[in-house]
Amino acid sequence: MALSLSPCLPHTTYLSKPLSTSKLTTISVSFNNPLLGFKPVNLRNNQVRCHAVTDLKSASSLDQSKGEGDDRSEEESKGDRIVADYNWTEEWYPLYLTKDVPDDAPLGLTVFDQQLVLYKDGNGVLHCYQDRCPHRLAKLSEGQLIDGRLECLYHGWQFEGNGKCVKIPQIPADAKIPRSVCVKTYDVKESQGVVWVWMSQTTPPNPEKLPWFENFARPGFQDTSTIHELPYDHSILLENLMDPAHIPISHDRTDWTAKREDAQALLFEVTERTDRGFAGWWGKEKDGSMPNFLRFDAPCVLQNNRELVDKDGEKHYFTGLFLCRPTGQGKSMLIVRFGGTKRSPLAKLFPKWYFHQNASKVFEQDMGFLSSQNEVLMKEKVPTKELYINLKSSDTWVAEYRKWMDKVGHGMPYYFGHSTLSPPKLPAVVEHAPAGLVAGVSASSPAKGGIGTMHAPNLANRYFRHVIHCKGCSSVVKAFTAWKNGLSAAALVLTALAILASSRQWKTFLLLSATLCLGGAYACSTAVAMNTTNFIRVHRRL
Hints:
This protein has 542 residues and is an alpha+beta fold. It has helices at 74-77, 234-241, 247-250, 352-380, 396-408, 437-442, 462-465, 471-500, 504-532, and strands spanning 39-40, 92-97, 107-111, 114-120, 126-130, 144-146, 149-151, 158-159, 165-167, 185-191, 194-198, 222-230, 266-274, 277-284, 292-297, 301-309, 315-326, 332-340, 415-416, 421-422. Residues 92-197 form the Rieske domain.
């Protein structure tokens, strides 16, 4: 791909919903990648802004005199704060990449502390239920699909698309199943390759809130999409993703663009603040321009966009999109999508799994920092302004995000804002790996969240965080493992034949063949390790 695949660097173009072309010109943003061969164009002054809002504030009206980027009014700074109407359930949350939803097994997922099960019926239609059998509360995600119906593996109760129970093996043959025996259902929509869920059980789904990304609908747009399960809170994850200042340091030489010597002051211009998020431009102070446009929209959609014009005058669009889902205290899941209307020829030489493992590496480089940050916030239980030292030249988006949490956090299960907070009232739920025969059988199936015998059920483990959620990487690991075993066996047989051979020429040929097989087995083993082994910083190795 023709752009940096560092998931922490926001590079995206996003529109909150589809708009007619008569009403809109897309805001764009691009990636600072020398391999693209393009020059950035700043379109801030001659381009119509999308996603217009009634309370749009110009950047010149924002007071950013405080070192922490506090740009609220004097009245608010004295203790009064604006509280927006917000209910976390009345939002669309990204569940999974459509291409990675298993065809033959249910998938257990969570939004905050709500456990869900997602599956495809016999017609390929997606359905989402509460992950709880009404009989004895067993997890339906531990069940199986039979003739397009979801079966609980505890007692064999089966449920069809609308949540109605259609089979109970334990009742008499002439008995009817009461209509009240059903599971709670959730509305799901597939849009632009992502499955979204509407969490409210009382308010009908609002199609206006379903995100739409203009660049992804452009002709010729291609993207590399990955999904990752991470061991820290979604708010800390979003902070990390909207923090371009850390990339040269934390991800030095991880990809083609991150270099420690490029760490510098940044420029920011906040152009929009609404009850649903904020947006603005940013760039490097040394460049004296702000060609990147960042937008955050509720509940947890972050994008960074840029346009580039090539030497022939053709305009190209590039997007880095981050779709975050809270999965409980100290846990989150992220869909990362980097793409553009033009790819670098160099990027085409690499297989997709290479970019996936590189994205995993980027998260592992930050994991220790973010996990410890999560622990401190939970321990101290004070607003972030009492803990953070935010700089205008690097942390503007972080301050904006925490202040947005001040406005809407009252409508969330818990939150840590800039000036206010509401810590979790219940302890975190620690889920253990399943046990018994069923777990042993399902361990080999990534669709079941199985982890196999080689991998511990730990969100710090790359296999558990990414591979089991990605059909492509799961297939790659299985294929390379099979080739490794086959080549190792072939090398053993060839060596044995070489020992038995009487001719020197045959001995040489067989030993050379065995050596080649061992080399292939080693290459396959290396590929498996790249997909399943965590990155470890050199200075931390024992």
